[in-house]
Amino acid sequence: xxxxxxxxxxxxxxxxxxxxxxxxxxxxxxxxxxxxxxxxxxxxxxxxxxxxxxxxxxxxxxxxxxxxxxxxxxxxxxxxxxxxxxxxxxxxxxxxxxxxxxxxxxxxxxxxxxxxxxxxxxxxxxxxxxxxxxxxxxxxxxxxxxxxxxxxxxxxxxxxxxxxxxxxxxxxxxxxxxxxxxxxxxxxxxxxxxxxxxxxxxxxxxxxxxxxxxxxxxxxxxxxxxxxxxxxxxxxxxxxxxxxxxxxxxxxxxxxxxxxxxxxxxxxxxxxxxxxxxxxxxxxxxxxxxxxxxxxxxxxxxxxxxxxxxxxxxxxxxxxxxxxxxxxxxxxxxxxxxxxxxxxxxxxxxxxxxxxxxxxxxxxxxxxxxxxxxxxxxxxxxxxxxxxxxxxxxxxxxxxxxxxxxxxxxxxxxxxxxxxxxxxxxxxxxxxxxxxxxxx
Length: 440
Ligand code: KE4
Hints:
The chain is of the alpha/beta class. The protein contains 14 helices and 14 strands. The protein has helices spanning about 5-15, 75-85, 95-105, 120-135, 175-180, 190-200, 220-235, 255-260, 290-295, 315-330, 335-355, 380, 385-400, 420-440; strands spanning about 40-45, 50, 55-60, 115, 140-145, 180-185, 205-210, 240, 270-275, 285-290, 360-365, 365-370, 400-405, 410-415. The strands form 3 sheets. A 7-stranded mixed sheet has the order 4-10-9-8-7-5-6, with helices on both faces. The protein has a 4-stranded mixed sheet with strand order 1-2-3-13. Strand 2 and strand 3 (about 55-60) form a beta hairpin. Helix 3 packs parallel to helix 10 (about 315-330). The site of ligand KE4 has 19 residues, from helix 4. Ligand KE4 binds near residues 28, 147, 209, 245 and 410.
């Protein structure tokens, strides 16, 4: 099979590397985990990406989650264009900010008030500061394999036990920033019990991805979520769901709605929810919201400071409003469930035929193909996956026009723009790619 020509992409990337660290504005795009050079993209349309050499790809990254409607959805484009002619930013309240806040509150029963920021990182950082400000405590609990943005206090190594306080996992993060962070194992009920046993009255909040995308797709157990809610209630800590990836993705009401539909009533609701990606419709938006008594502590209504020049930016609000209205009024979730299930079942069938160890884990249109023999339930089991085999599969699919996330530890996304022929084309490519790696 002839490899696609990528001359311009190589030249463009080499030029980028001369002026931008690693040639990218986010390391997730750097292909470090799969080798080779990232492709420089020129445009997107519907389910497709086109690189600067004109090669077409079926896109399963969707800009790492925001593009549930695909590239250039007409109504979103139109809304941004209209907003643009009124002005790009005012630094003053605008009605679009209120409208998007109302849409979020209507979608998520746990959210009574919401504040807009410009990224998921900002939203997580603010939510943590708010939990600390509201409780007057310092300690935060997070889980290995969950990512909440490049927040200093959350860039910690996975702890070895429930009492191992955080050690930074990046240069530039002072030890003091992570000293109050506990990093536990996801789905480890005994681990959180031990942590609250030792630190309960010092824990300001627990933050987690309620369905994880950032170690690959991993489901929580009902018991884990129920115990988190029980212990945070008992000790007066806040429970923070980071739904940056799952919000409006796995359901219009995010993971919280999925759990309700599963009848998991004993897990309660989070006190705060962090949002991003889809809520901005492809433009820079993050948001955090939750209980009104907690949110009222945020400046200027309360003492917990948080600010941002472009927070609630009118163009980004317009994109977010148009996206959420499209999702609310013409929900794609039943079809996304159906075509993503067909894709994942087809991948599993083709891998099984060739005796390739794999686990396909999915939540709605978010999914991960792990090259692993056992189900992935936490970060330790995720690390058992065969990342070299993933890298070979990644390039075998890329060379057949299928654009997957460039890491075993990421989720892939199907959009409402993906068609049945796109799924068929992907499965044909996978059949050849599996055969290629099985013989390697
Ligand atoms: P941003 O600051 O990238 O908008 O959001 C950070 C964030 C917070 N919470 C969750 C659950 C997230 O998944 C993210 C960002 N996700 C990564 C991909 N796994 C974004 C890709 C990137 O960093 O370039």
